[in-house]
Amino acid sequence: MSTPPPSASRPAVRIGVLVPLTRPGWVEAGQHLLAGLELGAREVNEGGGIAGAPLELVVRDTAADPKRAVAAVDELAGLGVVALVGEYHSVVARAVAARAEAIGLPFLCSSAVLDALTDEPSEWVARIAPAQSHGWRVYAEFLLGAGHRRVAVAADPSVYWASGARILRNCLVPHGGSVVEFDMRTLGPEAVCDALVDSRATALLLLVGYPEPAVSIVKCVRRDPRLGEVLVGAPAGQPEFAAWGGLLGDDGASVPFLRYLPERLGELGVRVEAALRGRLGGAPSFVAFEGYDAVVVLADVLRSAASWPHVAVEGTRGAISFSRVPGIGVWQWAWAPVQVVDRDPAEPGRFRVLHSG
User: What is the pLDDT along the chain (357 residues), one digit of tens a residue?
Assistant: First the structure.
């Protein structure tokens, strides 16, 4: 027996969507996130909506601006949304989480990974992306396994990048490793190359903005004959998106990054991947799957009137449920699958799995 479509006479169940769609936000990530959210909402409505009512996404562009995002939260609350979802940038998601907690509006963070998403334990906020401490620990395991114990990071000033550098240091130092930081407020790409030579580091990690200065640093390192054996890595995932290859060409290959996908997708994941590919005109990133899974979770919560700890749904990347994780104040899916991958230098459009966590 088929499920009847949502009734046009019933008021829509409105969800506020927060995504970076203009610069300085990471626009390509925002587009992939929105594609996943919209696909999930369409399928929810094709399956009967929320108790017969249509699900409606009310989208606001955060442009990676915390103040703009907080203003959007207040606007969306005034429009009667029943929950908030989305956001890619950690500093923005943190601001959204604080405001959602203050006004008592559920917020499901799809893609931001900063551990301290809230200052205090929250009943209103949940997250399906793995916490930074978990994913970046997997990245540190990869570095150690590949023999990299002296690591340099080119770092912009931000809570997110500082947290990443601290996680790497905490993971590497007990194994005889070290982390040296290059302050990108004072160094250009050429100076980074000189500092990298002096540091004797075997790996340089890009904890910087994209496309700049990340792209310029990669080009400079690749062209420096002194640094031919140095690994360039980007744990935050910049090489995941097609624009990376367009900007860097062959130089963009062999740059390991974190991706939150299993080695093999199940039946649901395969079907969603095909649908997302059609929407995006190319391969979907893990961020698009995060968007889809977020809507699956919210639909379950709204249909059952359940709280975060009672969620139990099948997502594209595994069974999703939430728990309290030590040191993390939000309800957390522990964990989405984590991989370290890179673009194959022989075929930059293909990804190689280097390590799984």
Answer: 345 567 666 899 999 999 999 999 999 999 999 999 999 999 999 999 999 999 999 999 999 999 999 999 999 999 999 999 999 999 999 999 999 999 999 999 999 999 999 999 999 999 999 999 999 999 999 999 999 999 999 999 999 999 999 999 999 999 999 999 999 999 999 999 999 999 999 999 999 999 999 999 999 999 999 999 999 999 999 999 999 999 999 999 999 999 999 999 999 999 999 999 999 999 999 999 999 999 999 999 999 988 999 999 999 999 999 999 999 999 999 999 999 999 999 999 899 999 999
Strand locations in 211-305 (E): 231-233, 257-259
Please enumerate in sequence order all residues whose Cβ is within 8 A of that of 131, keeping only pairs 6 or more positions apart, or say none. 113, 114, 115, 325, 328, 332
Q: E strands within 197-299?
A: 203-207, 231-233, 257-259
Rounded to the nearest 5 degrees, what angle is found at the Cα of 243, between the Cα atoms of 239 and 246?
105
Question: Distance (Å, rounded) from C-alpha 320 to C-alpha 336?
Answer: 8
CA distance 33 to 321: 20
